[in-house]
């Protein structure tokens, strides 16, 4: 029973990761890029940040997806990701809210930053925005790193890998069961 429960959790985690990657790929497609082409540099940054902070790879992919969607700029979003982690940790906010805040700033909407004590001149460049944010909260994500949260993330990654191995078989079973249910429903409606 425990093995079945762990397997189910692993498959769900793998499916969630796959869904997050598809969402990131869709954001990259909006700027003429693809996750397949950029997987290595994206995952290198995400893995490095996960090792030093409390933020999981899935949370970071979602934040990156949000940054790219708002700013319409891949390179600037990749450079901003560590700053977003610092903003989240330093501002005691979730990563999605921090990504929204920084994404808007990268897109030119910097007025929201004033609530956090960061005042920029209108028309501030991306470099000026990143410098101001780094000055205000730089290093906060690493300083807030909790070894137990990092362990949870590492164990989660292990579960993701196990789930990836099981996912194709589970998806085959789901397809068969869906087909069977469709046939049963059609037969039931005919009689």
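^ Assign residues to that structure.
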């Amino acid at each position: 029973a425990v093995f079945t429960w762990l397997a189910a959790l692993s498959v769900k985690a793998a499916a969630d990761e796959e869904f997050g990657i598809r969402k990131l790929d869709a954001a990259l497609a909006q700027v003429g890029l693809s996750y397949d082409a950029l997987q290595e540099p994206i995952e290198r940054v995400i893995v490095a940040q996960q090792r030093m902070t409390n933020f999981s790879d899935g949370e970071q992919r979602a934040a990156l997806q949000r940054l790219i969607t708002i700013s319409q700029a891949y390179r600037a979003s990749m450079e901003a990701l560590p700053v977003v982690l610092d903003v989240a940790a330093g501002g005691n906010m979730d990563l999605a809210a921090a990504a929204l805040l920084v994404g808007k700033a990268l897109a030119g909407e910097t007025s929201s930053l004033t609530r956090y004590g960061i005042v920029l001149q209108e028309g501030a460049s991306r470099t000026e925005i990143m410098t101001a944010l780094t000055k205000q909260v730089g290093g906060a994500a690493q300083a807030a790193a909790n070894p137990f949260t990092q362990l949870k993330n590492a164990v989660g990654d292990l579960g993701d890998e196990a789930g990836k191995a099981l996912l194709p078989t589970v998806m085959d079973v789901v397809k068969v069961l869906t087909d069977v249910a469709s046939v049963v429903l059609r037969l039931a409606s005919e009689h």
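The mean pLDDT is 88.
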